[in-house]
What we know:
By secondary structure, the chain is an all-alpha fold. It has one domain. The protein has one helix at residues 2-55. The longest helix is centred in the middle third of the chain and has 54 residues, at 2-55. The radius of gyration is 23 Å and the shape is rod-shaped. The N and C termini lie far apart (76 Å). The model has no long low-confidence stretch (mean pLDDT 86).
Amino acid sequence: MKLAKSRGQNTVEYLMMLAVIVGVILVVGRMFKPQVSNVFNKVMQMVTDAANTVGGA
Length: 57
């Protein structure tokens, strides 16, 4: 009986740690979303400029 209780407790602890990790990832993702979007837009502009240069447009 004690083994089953300990096993359940470990499962709950792992689920709580997973919830905290997911929460941190979501918060960090929201914080850095504008920066990631800006970097993506800059890279896309560089690619477009390079393609236009090569294409002679």
